[in-house]
């Protein structure tokens, strides 16, 4: 059957794409006007008065205002704005950052350490204001991206989405403001309901499953309902690729229970939350023939190591949709394995602070994805970055910075750090993301995400980023898979400096049997693959010791996930920390280590 949207849905797609094409055509002008709107709305707030004084920006020409703003207001980090946000959290109702009262705060995602770890310096709670604008732009980018996807992968109106989405528990600050993750705020908003109405596609799970608060119980119910509505599922999605992989790994263990529940119209005792049980049991009824069909498919999939699980169990699904760039890249291989040839479509580019760009080329594989900047969402500046090839010890990382330029002045092939001015009260705030301009969509730049600037592994003059670590682990895992049937499940690292000389430790969780000699080769390959000049020199002079590979028990990284969830994170925003010095995580890792290997790469 040919799958097409109805005229109403197609008309909406046409309208939102037409709007974006228009603002993209004149992106530079739109940006100048966007800054003017931000400053007019927030004129007179304490932070801006500190730098602009009593100048009435409402009477100024937009171009002159842009020039005044970028020359008078300094670049800022989150730390510079944190005192103002803390005052808001404590109940100060004066217009500090915005004229609009702030009632919601989002937990800022800390890339190095996951989302939030209570009670540690490493996981100090960091907040970002969340306003009506935040929810509206989320709805807008989701609708825009859906419209572009529907051009390539048309979906049936009234179909369903298997969404592995999770809300976290919210809490109140001293001043009475509600705090949660940005996704939690969005799932609780009217905009989330509007999104389903406008795109004419509805999630399989009721709100009680999404907001249940126990990710294991929610995941079970997502899987159960996804299979119960299996023939109606048009695509499969989650915020991060990790969540999808995690869900299907869990499915490998619980599929028999799910089949029993579908057959009998019951719900496993593993789901104990009363509201969740009631909501799910109100949906399902006994369906022995469906259960039998799923059971037969799963028995076949088990013999294939679950290759093509998605296409087998959800035959009408058109694609898998999720964030697959940056720290999600290590999950590509497993997700492709499950997808069995189904298209993987990378979701859009944003941060807790602001949405940035949409994937307007959904036919491209995740490795080639770019994001077209949406010029109405925030005012974007781009700080040119140049790589330092030689004396890297003189810089914070291997980049030399230049003065930020507006969106209209960026150049193809140049790398930049993004600087944000938002409607929610962040002014010239450095995001820490390194992007490369890959081209243009009309007049707006298309960005390729390169990496986070933040160093994650350093002992003395060595400087390695998350991307450096990912490349090294990929080299090691190639040795692993080429010499057996084992696969790398997940990894993290630690810079050990307590003992001299300091050295890197990489922790691996492996599924399958592998000979110790092979693991020794993996360790050596990773050590030799760090190309940072400071690291190579330090290894040759033994001022950094041999790399250590620690193999941990199966299930160790689930314990790390549980550790984060128990301290306020949500699965929707969880990222495995690629490097950690958190004592709680290190205790889990070291307590689960079953084998250790030291590199012989440098003799």
TrEMBL record:
Q: Does the keyword Ligase apply?
A: yes
Is Repressor among this UniProt entry's keywords? no
Q: Which GO terms describe its cellular component?
A: cytoplasm
- Domain GH3 C-terminal, first and last residues per copy: 467-583
Q: Which residues form a coiled coil?
A: none
Keyword list, A-Z: Ligase
Q: Where is the GH3 middle domain?
A: 372-452
Single GO molecular function: acid-amino acid ligase activity
Pfam name, any one: GH3
Q: Which InterPro entries match?
A: GH3, GH3_C, GH3_M
PANTHER family hit by this protein = GH3 DOMAIN-CONTAINING PROTEIN, INDOLE-3-ACETIC ACID-AMIDO SYNTHETASE GH3.10
So what family is this one in?
Belongs to the IAA-amido conjugating enzyme family.
Protein name (record): Auxin-responsive GH3 family protein
Source organism of this protein record: Populus tomentosa
């Amino acid at each position: 059957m040919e799958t097409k949207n109805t005229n109403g849905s197609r008309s909406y797609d046409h309208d939102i794409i037409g709007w974006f094409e228009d603002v993209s055509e004149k992106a530079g002008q739109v940006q100048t006007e966007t800054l003017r709107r931000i400053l007019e709305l927030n004129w007179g707030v304490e932070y801006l008065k500190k730098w602009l004084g009593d100048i009435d920006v409402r009477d100024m020409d937009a171009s002159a205002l842009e020039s005044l703003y970028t020359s008078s207001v300094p670049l800022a980090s989150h730390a510079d704005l944190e005192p103002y946000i803390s005052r808001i959290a404590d109940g100060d109702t004066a217009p500090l950052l915005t004229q609009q009262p702030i009632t919601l705060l989002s937990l800022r995602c800390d890339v190095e350490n996951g989302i939030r770890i209570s009670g540690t310096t490493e996981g100090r709670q960091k907040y970002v204001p969340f306003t009506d604008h935040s929810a509206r732009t989320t709805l807008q980018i989701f609708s825009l991206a859906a419209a572009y996807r529907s051009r390539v992968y048309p979906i049936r109106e009234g179909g369903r989405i298997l969404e592995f989405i999770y809300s976290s528990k919210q809490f109140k600050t001293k001043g009475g403001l509600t705090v949660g993750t940005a996704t939690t705020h969005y799932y609780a908003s009217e905009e989330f309901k509007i999104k389903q109405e406008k795109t004419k596609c509805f999630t399989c799970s009721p709100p009680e499953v999404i907001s249940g608060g126990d990710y294991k119980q929610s995941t079970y119910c997502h899987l159960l309902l996804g299979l119960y509505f299996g023939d109606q599922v048009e695509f499969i999605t989650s915020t991060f690729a990790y969540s999808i992989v995690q869900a299907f790994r869990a499915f490998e263990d619980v599929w028999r229970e799910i089949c029993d529940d579908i057959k009998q119209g019951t719900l496993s005792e593993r789901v104990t939350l009363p509201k969740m049980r009631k909501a799910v049991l109100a949906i399902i009824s006994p369906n022995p023939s469906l259960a039998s069909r799923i059971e037969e498919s799963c028995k076949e999939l088990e013999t294939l190591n679950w290759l093509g699980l998605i296409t087998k169990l959800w035959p009408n699904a058109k694609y898998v949709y999720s964030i697959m760039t940056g720290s999600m890249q290590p999950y590509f291989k497993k997700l492709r394995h499950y997808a069995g040839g189904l298209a993987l479509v990378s979701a859009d580019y944003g941060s807790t602070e602001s949405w940035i760009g949409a994937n307007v080329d959904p036919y491209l594989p995740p490795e080639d994805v770019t994001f077209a900047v949406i010029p109405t969402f925030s005012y974007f500046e781009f700080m040119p970055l140049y790589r330092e090839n030689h004396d890297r010890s003189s810089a914070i990382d291997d980049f030399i910075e230049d003065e930020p330029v507006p969106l209209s002045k960026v150049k193809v092939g140049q790398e930049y750090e993004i600087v944000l001015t938002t409607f929610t009260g962040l002014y010239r705030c450095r995001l820490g993301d390194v992007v490369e301009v890959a081209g243009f969509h009309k007049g707006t730049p298309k960005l390729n995400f390169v990496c986070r600037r933040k160093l994650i592994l350093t002992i003395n003059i060595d400087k390695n980023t998350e991307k450096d670590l990912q490349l090294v682990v990929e080299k090691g895992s190639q040795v692993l898979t080429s010499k057996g049937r084992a696969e790398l499940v997940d990894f993290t690292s630690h810079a050990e400096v307590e003992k001299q000389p300091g050295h890197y430790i990489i922790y691996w969780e492996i599924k399958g049997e592998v000979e110790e000699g092979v693991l020794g080769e993996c360790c050596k390959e990773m050590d030799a693959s760090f190309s940072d000049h400071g690291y190579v020199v330090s290894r040759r002079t033994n001022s950094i010791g041999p790399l250590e590979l620690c193999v941990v028990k199966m299930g160790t990284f689930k314990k790390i996930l549980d550790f984060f969830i128990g301290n306020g994170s949500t699965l929707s925003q969880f990222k495995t920390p690629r490097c950690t010095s958190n004592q709680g995580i290190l205790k889990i890792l070291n307590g689960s280590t079953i084998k250790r290997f030291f590199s012989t790469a440098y003799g």
